[in-house]
Amino acid sequence: MRSIKHIIGILAIFTFTSCVQETHLKTITFKVDMRSIENPTNVGIRGNFTDNPWNDTAPLTDENNDGIYEGTFSQKTAINQIQFKFVNQLTDYELPDSDNRIITFEYKPETIIYETTFNSFESKITKQ
User: Which of 43, 57, 110, 122 is least surrounded by CB atoms within 10 angstroms?
Assistant: First the structure.
């Protein structure tokens, strides 16, 4: 009997002292330069932050026809980073056999602009 009370006491301590991280709004604008790709179509992004991670493509658009595809995504979250890759034709992943792209967050609301070129390791992150 004593051991059951002991276990219940330990569970109560964990329940009342555990802390749940506060969520913060993260707004990210992705910009990928596709001018070096012949006839880009169905350009998007896949990653661990979509509703169906790595299976759904979040579409990016080129509204002004400058060859740079863009999309803005907002979500309240407590995660500290996302991983992703850009795709062309819904399934043609960039940077094959290379690590995923990563954005690391701070523990606060953030607005981020992520700019790169398809199949290039170079990127620019602007936090506003």
Answer: 122
Instruction: Specify the pLDDT at position 13.
Output: 42
Q: Which residues of the chain have pLDDT under 70?
A: 1-19
Long-range contact set of residues 102-109: C-beta below 8 Å, sequence gap at least 24: 103/28, 104/80, 105/24, 105/26, 105/77, 105/79, 105/80, 105/81, 107/21, 107/24, 107/80, 108/24, 109/24, 109/25, 109/26
Size of the chain in residues: 128
Q: Is 15 within 8 Å of 7 (Cβ atoms)?
A: no
| Residue 1 pLDDT | 47
Alpha-carbon span 7 to 36, nearest angstrom: 62
Neighbour-count burial of 8, counting CB atoms closer than 10 A to its CB (0-12 exposed, 13-18 middle, 19+ buried): exposed
CB atoms within 10 A of CB 14: 9
Q: What is the rounded distance in angstroms from the CA atom of residue 110 to the CA atom of residue 128?
A: 7
